[in-house]
Design goal:
The chain is an alpha/beta fold. 38% of the residues lie in helices and 24% in strands. The protein binds adenosine-5'-diphosphate and magnesium ion. The site of adenosine-5'-diphosphate (ADP) has 12 residues, from helix 1.
Length: 252
Amino acid sequence: MFDVKNLTVKYQNSDNDAVCGVSFSLKAGSFTGLVGESGSGKSTIVSTSLGLLPKGAETKGEMFFEGKDILRMREDELRTIRWKEIALIPQSALNSFTPVITIGHHIKEVLAEHSNMIGNKAEDKVDGLLVEVGLDASIKNRYPHELSGGQKQRAAIALALACSPSLLFADEPTTALDVVTQAGILNLLARLRKEKKLTVLLITHDLPMAATICDKLLVMKNGLIVEEGTPKEIICNPQDAHTKALVNAILN
Ligand SMILES: Nc1ncnc2c1ncn2[C@@H]1O[C@H](COP(=O)(O)OP(=O)(O)O)[C@@H](O)[C@H]1O
Ligand SMILES: [Mg+2]
């Protein structure tokens, strides 16, 4: 459903490519981990997928979503797939809510703008989304600062799911959370993926965490995918020197 071929991305005024000739594909319904240290190019792949690279960034290669090349879509075409087909839980989700707007209002704005849903229908949808991510519907009346980190992350997931996307990018969704809360969020993503037949790309620097939940891993370093395989293949028999070092770090 999502096929990246030889993708290269270069930011304006930058000497090096942030992503250098990366290829991978996501099968419908799969749960894939994109794992790599900070600065390896993970978020750049996410921004490219949503047509959200900053001005002046250059791309090469192809990125097919349901057969159409995202790199060659016009802005109005991109708008028809963002939220409704491909949605993002952004890297800084915990800080991405506007402080003076309630959680319910955030979700209703997205429903109105991208799904033309307003009034009682939108109100019911907000309640349903919050319950679906394990929150009480009354959370909709709260402001972002009135939520714990875990609740905020769940609300960010509800927001991403508002327009029923088929592909979900979760960029470091558990990084700022304690271990117990992390496990809750990962279980939630796994459950939603099953229930909604979502295709999920989990982006993280945490190889052991990704290995416990994903069915396939892509390991990135310096803008390249250096290794790919099932968690078992990668943990038991890493091929690349960088992955070997990561795996040794877990085992020791
Ligand atoms: N807006 C930007 N302008 C210029 N360079 C950027 C920008 N965003 C990221 N980069 C650079 O691109 C590289 C990859 O970054 P990023 O995709 O954010 O990595 P990751 O998400 O794996 O931490 C880094 O060298 C980073 O400094
Ligand atoms: Mg990142």
